[in-house]
């Protein structure tokens, strides 16, 4: 399905029925994009298994709105590098330094 292979920014809600969670994860990951994925489930074991397997920077579970100033925004693959927002959005502008002080 073409809609599952593109990164469309618009009011679209494709609904894809499936019987096997592993099959639908493979289908969802078969794209060069990876900004956001959404899915609905009631079984918490399935929620964690599917969310971890999805190759996306953000995953909305049982919601269509996941944006928040406290949440990092960003994708993987061809959908970007790094994060915006939250404390993680600042990491690109900071230098980390390790200090080891001994023998005082």
TrEMBL record:
The keyword Transcription regulation does not apply. It comes from the Bacteria. GO terms for biological process: gamma-aminobutyric acid catabolic process. Residues 1-98 form the Aldehyde dehydrogenase domain. Pfam families: Aldedh. Gene3D superfamilies: Aldehyde Dehydrogenase, Chain A, domain 1 (3.40.605.10), Aldehyde Dehydrogenase, Chain A, domain 2 (3.40.309.10). The keyword Oxidoreductase applies. One of its GO terms (molecular function) is succinate-semialdehyde dehydrogenase (NAD+) activity. Keywords: Oxidation, Oxidoreductase, Potassium. Belongs to the aldehyde dehydrogenase family. This is Aldehyde dehydrogenase domain-containing protein.
